[in-house]
Amino acid sequence: MANKPGNTTMQIKALAVKKTGGLLEEYKFDVEPPKVHECLIKVLTCGICHSDLHMIDNDWGQSKYPLVPGHEVIGEVAEIGPQVTHLKVGDRVGVGWQRSSCLQCRDCLRGNENLCDENQGLIVTGPGGFADYLMVDSRFAFPIPKGIDSKIAGPLLCGGITVYAGLRNAGMSSGQEIGILGIGGLGHMAVQFAKKLGNRVTVFTTSQDKAEFAQKMGADEAIVVGKGEIPQAPSNKLDILLSTVPAALDWVPYIDFLDSDGALAFVGVPDAPLSIPLFPLLTKRRRIMASPIGGRAMINEMLSIAEKFGIEPIVEVFAIAQANEAMQKVRDNQVRYRAVLTVS
Ligand code: NAP
Ligand code: ZN
Fold first, then answer.
1. Structural domain of residue 218, as residue ranges?
2. pLDDT of residue 148
3. In which band, very low, low, confident or very high, does the pLDDT at 4 lie, cut at 50, 70 and 90?
């Protein structure tokens, strides 16, 4: 275990990948006591997002090794910097993809800290939550509502906010036709947000068992799409189709499923550039957009909605010692529906 927090340098015990695509191994490093706005968090649980895998594999060309993954962190504040006033030691907080931003630019001042040019990804610019302690800018540590259990809270901090913000920014209100493509960690939360906020929901999945379970989660219609096959059309045209798929597909049939003025919203990151003809967009004034995580105000709104409406990630819990096994299950698309590591 790490040394006790205090006034001196402490050692953090973590799991890191030391080369592209490698396995997680023990890794220790030192941190100084929290400065100015920083806080040190004792990690309780940490979800595994597919972005951890993209980073382990250096899919986005920005990974630095040793890389400590983990950006769906729930923990208790262990120590605070001298200017932290909104958190105290012992508070239960969550941290997602974002470590910090400038808090002064136009985007930050509009509550879009996730769009800030200086925004720092937790595991892009430092160690993440597969560790006994995490140091972060306290202004990106969010108090967790009492009604949300620590084991299920983590996935809301990246997966949850990403789908909530993606749907909202695509124009989701209620009474609409919402499609969700890919029912993994993000997709299964998207089904719940869309349905519980009063929409009709259609899912597209490659997994037969997920099609059945999606209906238990509230989906009105589930369409199974074999890999490489053309999807069957949904009963109704869609106002929004949210794609959570981390792979390149033929998007053209999905664009045809959109209603006039409908939006195809990407939150999943395909592994190839989009190749899309203009006419199916132009003739029906359809849009294509993409959306990264969410700003601080929207994170707080999302947590409050999750508590009020009982939106709960469905998790498979692993001890941190089983982290490699859990990661492999994510790679193999075998998790139902989000893997979470218990750290302490
Ligand atoms: P996940 O749990 O692995 O789920 C992805 C789902 O996509 C799978 O469960 C599967 O659903 C479907 N899928 C996977 N490969 C496919 C393929 N070749 N063809 C068709 N469907 C496929 O991943 P996640 O954690 O939800 O993350 C999904 C994506 O979102 C990743 O690219 C991740 O990096 C990205 N992400 C983006 C943001 C952001 O800010 N925009 C934030 C977090 C994550 P079915 O079994 O239902 O087919
Ligand atoms: Zn993530």
1. 171-290
2. 97
3. low
Please give the single-letter amino acid code of residue 5: P
Q: What is the mean pLDDT of the chain?
A: 96
Radius of gyration of the chain (CA): 20
Take atom 11 of ligand 1 and give the residue whose Cα is closest: 182
Do 144 and 177 fall into the same domain?
no
270 lines ligand 1 (CB under 6 A): no
Instruction: Classify residue 301: in a domain, yes or no.
Output: no
pTM attached to this predicted model: 0.97
User: Measured from the CB, is residue 330 less than 6 Å from ligand 1?
Assistant: yes
d(CA 339, CA 147): 21
- Closest to 261 in 3D by CA, of 243, 275, 246, 281: 281
Do residues 155 and 181 both lie within one domain?
A: no
148 in any annotated domain: yes
CA distance 48 to 70: 6
Indicate whether 115 and 226 sit together in one domain: no
